[in-house]
Design brief:
By secondary structure, this protein is of the alpha/beta class. Helices cover 54% and strands 9% of the residues. It has a five-stranded parallel β-sheet with strand order 2-3-4-1-5, with helices on both faces. Strands 6-8-7 form a three-stranded antiparallel β-sheet. It binds adenosine-5'-triphosphate (ATP) and magnesium ion.
C-alpha cells in the first residue's frame, strides 16, 4: 500500500471502504446521490470506486470536475468533453437513433444563451441573437447519451464550487441562475424520457446544503440521497497503519498505531496518511530513534501553521459558505472551542454569540447560535460531547484543533 496523502487513491490503495462503495452502488439503483463532506475525506476516491463498480456491471460512467466552471455553458462543455470518448464506442443502432445530433451539439453549446453578469437574467452574448437557452441544449445532451443501451452514472465533482462561482460573479441574478440550474437538475432532467437510466453522483466540499438553505431552495436538492463519509472505526485505522508500515518496512507496534489513531481522534484516512508520511520522514532523518519515540514529533509537524498542510481549507470554507457576519461568529466559536481538547461549554459559547450581536435579543442570539452550531456539527468541525454531564462542543479532528489554536495564538 502506498503512502499517498493528497491525490485520490484507487485499486489496492483504496482502503477500508468497500462497504461504503457497495452501499452507494445500491442507492444508485433507484436514486441519485449527493455526497458532501469536508476536503480530503475521500469523496473523489470513493466516487471513482463506485464508477469502477458500476462499470464492472456494464454501465457507462463519466466524471466531470466543475470547480473551474463559472457559468452554465462551461458546465455543458465539460459534460460534452467527457462524453466524446464514449461516443466512439456507441453501437451503430445508438448512433443512427441520434442521427446527426451528435455532430451538431458542439456548435450548439458554443452559442448557448447564458445570462451576462450585470445585464439582468435576460442578457445574451453579443452576436448570438438566435442562441438557445442553456437548459434546452443540456437536456439534448442527456437525450443523446440515453441512446446508448447501457445504464449511465455521471459523477459531478465540486458542484457547489461552480454554484458559488455563479453567485459570486453575478451579483444581480446569480442566485436566480443557481435556482434555475438546480430546478433543471431536479425537474427537467427527470422529465426526459429514457433519462431514467442515467444516475447521478454529485459531490462537493463546501456546503451545498448551506447554500440552498440560505436562499430558500432546499427543495431543489431534496430528491437526492444525502450521504457523507464517516471516519474509520479505530480497528480499521490501526489495520491501515499496520499495512502502511509493512509496505515501508517500518516497525510500528499495535500500541504505536493506536497512539497515532488517538492523536488524530477522527480517523479519516487522509489524516492517518499524513501522520504516517511525517513519521516516515522523521524515521529517515533519525534512523537510530525508535518509531514510537518520533510519533509525537510527527503529529506536531503536521499541525505547524503555514506548513505543508490542508487545514486552512477549514477556515476558508466558513467564509465561502457563510455570510461575513456569520463566518465571524463561527470563527469566534471555534476559537473558543479550540482552547481545550475537551471543548467549550454550551453556555459560554452562547455568551460569546450574544457579545457579538449587540442590539439583538437573547432569543435572536440563541437562534443564531443554534443555526451555526448545527452547521459546524454537520460540517464536522465539532461535536456535542455530553459524557462529562455538561454539554461541551469539541473539535472532531484533534490536529485541526491544534492547528486552529496555533493560528489564533500570538
Ligand atoms: N479509501 C482510502 N484509502 C486510503 N486513503 C484514502 C482513502 N480515501 C482517501 N484517502 C486519503 O485521502 C486523500 C484524499 O482523497 P480524495 O482526493 O479522494 O478526497 P476528497 O474528499 O475528494 O478531497 P478534495 O476535497 O480535496 O477533493 C488521499 O490522498 C488519501 O491520502
Ligand atoms: Mg475530490
Amino acid at each position: 500500500m502506498d503512502n499517498i496523502a493528497g491525490s485520490p487513491v484507487e485499486g489496492g490503495n483504496f482502503y477500508g471502504r468497500a462497504e461504503v462503495v457497495a452501499h452507494l452502488r445500491g442507492i444508485l439503483e433507484h436514486d441519485d446521490i449527493l455526497l458532501l463532506g469536508p476536503r480530503r475525506i475521500g469523496k473523489t476516491s470513493t466516487a471513482r470506486a463506485v464508477m469502477t463498480a458500476v462499470r464492472n456491471e456494464g454501465w457507462r460512467a463519466l466524471e466531470i470536475n466543475v470547480a473551474a466552471c463559472t457559468n452554465e455553458r462551461d458546465f455543458i462543455a465539460k459534460l460534452e468533453a467527457a462524453l466524446k470518448p464514449e461516443l466512439a464506442s456507441f453501437s451503430e443502432k445508438a448512433r443512427s437513433l441520434a442521427g446527426d445530433a451528435f455532430d451538431k451539439i458542439t456548435g450548439r453549446i458554443k452559442s448557448i444563451k447564458i445570462p451576462i453578469p450585470g445585464a439582468g437574467s435576460f442578457g445574451v452574448d453579443i452576436g448570438e441573437a438566435d442562441a438557445e437557452e442553456w437548459t434546452v441544449v443540456a437536456s439534448d445532451v442527456l437525450r443523446l447519451i440515453s441512446h446508448a443501451e447501457e445504464r449511465w452514472m455521471i459523477y459531478i465533482d465540486e458542484l457547489p464550487i461552480m454554484l458559488f462561482n455563479i453567485i459570486r460573479n453575478d451579483k444581480q441574478s446569480g442566485v436566480q441562475r443557481v435556482r434555475r440550474f438546480l430546478d433543471w437538475f431536479r425537474n427537467d432532467v427527470r422529465a426526459l424520457p429514457d433519462v431514467r437510466r442515467v444516475r447521478w453522483l454529485v459531490s462537493g466540499s463546501v456546503g451545498l446544503d448551506t447554500l440552498v438553505q440560505e436562499h430558500g431552495m432546499a427543495d431543489t436538492i431534496n430528491s437526492m440521497r444525502h450521504q457523507g463519509l464517516t471516519a474509520y472505526k479505530d480497528e480499521v485505522a490501526v489495520a491501515m497503519l499496520a499495512e502502511l508500515a509493512e509496505s515501508y518496512k517500518i516497525e510500528l507496534s499495535d500500541v504505536d498505531a493506536r497512539h497515532i489513531v488517538a492523536a488524530v481522534q477522527w480517523p479519516q484516512p487522509y489524516y492517518l496518511q499524513m501522520a504516517f508520511h511525517h513519521l516516515r520522514a522523521l524515521i529517515c532523518e533519525y534512523p537510530d530513534d525508535s518509531p514510537a519515540s518520533l510519533i509525537d514529533q510527527a503529529m506536531e509537524i503536521m499541525v505547524q501553521p503555514g506548513g505543508d498542510n490542508d487545514f486552512h481549507h477549514w477556515e476558508i470554507r466558513l467564509s465561502i459558505q457563510l455570510g461575513r457576519a456569520d463566518a465571524d461568529i463561527a470563527m469566534a466559536l471555534l476559537n473558543m472551542a479550540a482552547r481545550d481538547p475537551l471543548g467549550a461549554r454550551a453556555e459560554n459559547l452562547l455568551d460569546a454569540v450574544q457579545e457579538r450581536m449587540p442590539g439583538s435579543t437573547a432569543e435572536e442570539a440563541k437562534r443564531a447560535f443554534i443555526r451555526l452550531r448545527d452547521i459546524l456539527i454537520r460540517d464536522a468541525y465539532w461535536w456535542a460531547d455530553e459524557t462529562s454531564g455538561v454539554k461541551r462542543y469539541r473539535f472532531r479532528l484533534e490536529p485541526l484543533r491544534r492547528w486552529w489554536i496555533r493560528r489564533d495564538t500570538l
